[in-house]
Design goal:
It contains 14 helices and 22 strands. It is of the alpha/beta class. The C terminus is likely disordered.
Length: 634
Amino acid sequence: MDFGHENVRSAINEDRLSSLPDELIHQILSCMDSKFAVQTCLLSSRWKLLWTSMPCLNFASHHFVSLPKFAKFVTHVLSHRNHQIEVTSVKLDFHGAASQFFVRKIANYVFSHNVQELTVVIFPKKHHEFPPCLFSSQSLKHFTLSSYFLAPCVTPKTPWDFPALTSLHLNEVTLCDDNAYKSVDLFSKCVNLKNLTLHFLFVNNVEVFDIITPQLSDLTLTYGRNLKVINLVAPQLENLTIINCSIENLIAPPGFSTLSYRGYPPPRLSKEGFHSLNKVTISLYSNVPCKEEDARKTINLLQEVHSARFLTLNVDVVECISSFPDLLSHHPSPFSDLICLNIDSSMRNDAYKVKMSTEARNFLLENSPNATFIMELPEAPPTKAMKQKEARAKRKAKLVADIERHMTELQALVELGKMHHGTTEGVKDEFGNLIAEARMLIEQKMMLNEQVKESAGRHKAEMQIQFDQRTVQTESGRPQIELGKVLVEEGMQMQVEPRELPIDSHKAEMQLKGREAHTRFEACVPGIRDLVNEGKEDGFSIFKKMDLIRSLLEKLPKRQRAEIEGHYSRQLEASEAQGHLLITDYVAYENFLSDEISTFQNAFSSNIPQASEPSSSCSPILRAPSTSNINSMQ
């Protein structure tokens, strides 16, 4: 697609973010701190005032060098904000002790703008009290108040006025720190509160902590301290979770269905509020052995949750009541509607030590014989002897696995050796034909040499005859001495005219065939040597692998070694035979090639003489009169 320069410039300069609706830009800016949201709005004239209409405000003091500068920024944002826009959520996160005036200013503003969600996170350096106005709002639905570090943050003792509040989460907040109150009621005006979580709850110097909420359905208490009596008035309660809270007495409303308790020691429950339980989870933890008094409290706790249909107990409960069977013998089983009993061992490393006594089993299941019983304990850790036995078994298993692997590799080496042997045999046949051809050429050369010698002998005889005839025809009047000298000189100087013989015509052809055969021989020898060397290496690899397998077999017990050797005996024998064959082939071929190379070099290194050119062995030496005859002639 072809773009013009103007179109490209227009696409680059287009501000696509600014074309987004304000609601979407507000949602994007709400994901960051208000300080950065304001700075971001300065990047575009289109966004310049968008921060003033943001419904979500996030203020964090750690983005500022000091708390006063943080307070100044918050005041500036609130004072310049569009007051016609409601505030849906506010998060206030500050370090240090903010003044009650500053907190009151923020609370009054956001509550006056119908805020629905408020999160306050404080990191106090000393004792800090929240102003009462922070705990009164007609619009607030979700409130989270968290305090960190050890300095206490104290809330007002009077009931909090949140008629629209549905969820409340308090973390490390001191709800009461005054000796003037025997009981405290903070949530009775939260008439629509449904979810309440109190984490690291502190209620000091109070006899009774009242939780009075008509619509509460889920209550979670975790790590509470100094809780003597909790009076829970919540007719709509369904789920109650208590984790590591030191509660002496728990007064619960009737009708709730799910109870989860984890901690130690077990609390004392009221007898009126636990008649409709469906699911109960009880986990008791202690670092010391269970005492008889603890066992009594645990048995009483189990009796109070007798209506449970699905019961989960940790192994500590089972261990505690099993330690005192005499106590159980005086109490019948309280569970008559039990459908499933599950013993949880996940939180104990030594759960394998726990043994459920017959009395404990009868106490839990005697009146619910059809209930499903689940108790899966981990196996006991192996002893030293068991570990040694297991280690030996692992070593044996590893040896067997290694032997099997090496036997597979040995079989692959044998197959490779067979392939090399077969290839060598094929080349051997081809090389044999070349050797046969070469031998035939050698024989032809030898025959030709004999023919040359025979022709040279006949030629010598003819020359002798001519020489003798020349001697007879010499003048009879010369002195015998001169005559002999002349004949000798003439005989030595006599030349016989060369003649073309039929043998000479084969010389060029024989030499050409010899050179061709020698060339093919030299070209073929390296390939055969490579194949034979590969076969030799295969043979050595086979024997090396067999030695390794035998060394592994020696490490096994005799009985197991005999079984494995019997299983692989044929394969080992076949492998050994194949290795010997490859090594034997190597030696045989090396000797064979050395002999043949020497034969070829000797056979084709000498030249075939011309039949018409006498050689040194068959030169025409004429028989002249001997010196003694000449002397006798004088």
